[in-house]
# Entry
Amino acid sequence: MSRGGFLLSGVLAGCVAAPALASPAVRVRPAVLAGQPAPGGGTFEHFSIEAQPVLAPVNGRGQVVFFATLLRGSGGEGLFLASGDRITRVAVEGDRAPGGGTLSGFGKHPIPSMNDAGAVAFAAAVSRGRTVEGIFVASGGRLRAIAVAGEAAPGIPGGTLAGVEAPVLNNRGEVAFLATVRRGRESVEAIYLRTGVRLKKVVSQGDPAPAGGTFAAFGPPTMNNSGLVAFGAVVEGRAVPGGLFLAEGDAVRMVVGAGDSTPLGGIFAKFSERIALNDAGTIAFNATLKDAPVMGALFALERGRLRTVAALGRPAPDGGVLAHFGLWPSLAADGAVAFTAAVDGGATTVAVFLVTAAGLRRVAGVGDALPSGGRLASFGLYPIAAVGHTGAVTFATAPTATGEGTEGIFVAEPARAP
# Structure
């Protein structure tokens, strides 16, 4: 979705700015492990595909939703829900698709979204049906379509949905997603919101941007339980080249723009494609900086004010400094921020961290003992973490290139400072 290098698709260099605290005891449990029996037959093989990041959202009830490939299952891949020691199927390749045909793959868009009721929104390919892909919601054993390729694109005259991805679901059952719309011979990007039976355009390529110019490209949207939609976007024209935006009803406003001053000095140069948003309206994001004493940092925007969550060169727990951030942060209801980072000169080389009001704590790191046995050998190619509303953190582990280590998805509940 990035154009002109404005939105980041890679990893930011950065290190922690929050006070580094000694790592507390944490309760880490496996949500699922490779080789474990899968519901409906077969065994879990992998939790990633095509070198994409593994993100396993966790809700307020501690349920974890995840993508997996299967060995000798009824389908080759699918989505599953872990509730404590019980794992259930959400949707598997070969399942009947609403409107006809069958679900034929999840690997193109393997990151689902889940609300506190356990409903799951996801994108999937469809074969032998009237569409080739769609956004779906699974809830209570039923599957319904939110938007499918080939249907009319509201708000874009003559437009047809050609591609849909990156859904996010809130507790009100609303779904926001990113779409490619075909209009004649051209294609444009857009963000849509499904509320009840109504599909509404939030913003599209070519629309006027609040600070001038026109929108040119978008990162995946995020949404809270009040229906606020936040997203990063590239802007063309004589204006700021892009920024982070918030949509409420029919109004879209820019909350941070390229060229704005940062709390660390200098100005914002680039933002991560994905950002995080909680019910308080706080937005967390990665950014690279210009003319600042640090190259990059992680920030939170709260009530219109920016605070630094992490920045280049500051101490990490257990020694060393953080050398690189993961692709994007995750945000809890109380403003705690979870992220992954590489560490130089410390007790671990890569770790999951949680920043609370008390400071920075390490949740899990390479070399740590795992409750399933052995030690954490790797977080995979693109380390990333998710934090739920109540502070539970999920992360995936993977074998090293030479086969050492466990592949699985784990849940950690860090001790909080009083």
